Amino acid sequence: MRAGEELPPLEIEITRTLIVAGAVASRDYQDVHHDAEAARQKGSPDIFMNILTTNGLVGRYITDHFGPGATLRRVAIRLGAPNYPGDTMVLTGRVEETDGDTATVRVVGANGIGRHVTGTVTVTVPREAGE
Questions:
Q1: Strand, coil or helix: what is 117?
Q2: Closest Cα partner for 96 from 110, 82, 116, 76?
Q3: C-alpha to C-alpha distance for 109 and 88, rounded to whole angstroms
């Protein structure tokens, strides 16, 4: 892990099931995350993903790359364009800095209408035996 390292992109298909399951799993029962008609009445073209699901997907992206021993120390994200069903979000990342076994990774998740999520993740990766 070194500053400037690019993480491989991760494509995530945004399905109704993913949106609803993420909202239910995080106990976010806001109707805009599961009821298309209610979402339209509130000005959205469809249901959309909640921030807690996005946060989990960002965490998954980092731990998938750095391995099961990686520990997320800080996740700071900001939402932008909504994730609607039928779109694809592509997560990309770049190691901004390292300090021993800890890295700060800049993460961007983009979909068909723009940047859905931007932020940084601080992750600690245990050194392998013998390093």
A1: strand
A2: 76
A3: 10
Q: How many CA within 13 A on the CB side of residue 131? A: 8
Q: Which amino acid is at 72?
A: L
Phi, psi of 130 (to 5 degrees): 90, -5
What are the two backbone dihedrals, phi and then psi, of residue 122, each rounded to the nearest 5 degrees? -100, 125
| 3-state secondary structure at position 52 | helix
The pLDDT tens digits of the residues spanning 64-86 come to 999 989 999 999 999 999 999 99
Q: How far apart, in whole angstroms, are the C-alpha atoms of residue 73 and residue 62?
A: 11
- For the stretch 36-71, what's the b/e string if a residue is b when 16 or more beta carbons lie within 10 angstroms of its beta carbon? eeebeeeeeebbbbbeebbbebbbebbbebbeeebe
Task: Indicate left, alpha or beta for 116 from its phi (over 0: left) and psi (-120 to 50: alpha).
Answer: alpha
Residue pLDDT, tens place only, 102-126: 999 999 999 999 999 999 999 999 8
d(CA 87, CA 36): 16
